[in-house]
Amino acid sequence: MLWRSLSRLVLGVDNDSEFLLKSLSWLMVLLGGVIFVLSKFVDLPYGRYACSKFGFPVNVKVAWFIQELPSLTVPLYLMCFSTDIKPLSLPNRLLLGMFIGHYVHRSLIFPFLIKGGKATPFIPFASAFIYCAFNGYLQARFLSKYAVYPSNWITDPRFLTGFALWLFGLLVNLHSDHILRKLRKPNETGYKIPHGGMFEYVSGANFLGEIIEWTGFAIACWSLPSAAFAVFGFFILSARATQHHRWYLEKFEDYPKSRKALIPFVY
User: How far is the C-alpha of 2 from the C-alpha of 69, rounded, in Å?
Assistant: First the structure.
């Protein structure tokens, strides 16, 4: 077809599989941009902002476990059962390990540490499940079949810088989640102002950590799929951070005015 031939020319690919991965990458960027713009008019319906008009409620622990699981199971399935993947080099294994490691925690550990929490409406729960399957396939398929790195990639400045950012972002994210969990004592309800760590500078410290993490992953991979993931994550997580920041300022009169929504001293 003429349309597909032109699309392949624009995207710089010569087979259907690569065409699919590049198309999915640009679709991810587009969807992230659309959601970011919509978030300026409608609060993203999750957590404290959940409401019944977005579907019936799903237990928050169940929702987190199921919706994040495809980002773990899809890559593992592709690596174990796909018949057309190549033997993975050390850089490919490390990069896949960075991605999978995050989702081992996010799907198998994080949900069961949640204390209380509002149920998740079905529509955002289902959307998150579809996205995780989409992105799990995109990242794992690229790294297990198409990504070719030189044997010394793990000493390349891009990998070293990306890995350092990924690790720093992961630690910020984990520490921020720990602070949020400790805000409530047993049988206590309601919301409090978080303090400590990056929360001294921004309202969305947990979101900032994840943005740094996936920016580092994109630099370490140096690929379109990983860059699309980082851009999508920035769009969504910055929207959520802005939403939280606005809510804190409205909810608490004594909320620190020096804090920014996401980026210290800037945003």
Answer: 38
Cβ atoms of 225 and 21 closer than 8 Å: yes
User: How does the average pLDDT of the chain come out, rounded?
Assistant: 90
Half-sphere exposure of 125 (CA within 13 A, CB side): 22
Of 19, 10, 121, 125, nearest in space to 64 by CA: 125
Average pLDDT over residues 69-97: 92
Taken in order 185, 245, 171, 144, is the CA torsion positive or negative?
positive
b/e map 198-233, b = 16+ CB within 10 Å = bbebbbbbbbbbbbbbbbbbbbbbbbbbbbbbbbbb
Q: Which residue has the tokens 């204390």?
A: 115
Residue 47 pLDDT exceeds 50: yes
Distance CA 118, CA 126 (A): 16
**Rounded to whole angstroms, how far apart are CA atoms 49 and 120?**
10
The residue ranges of DSSP E strands in 224-267, in sequence order, are none
HEC readout, 15-64: CHHHHHHHHHHHHHHHHHHHHHHHCCCCCCCCHHHCCHHHCCEECHHHHH
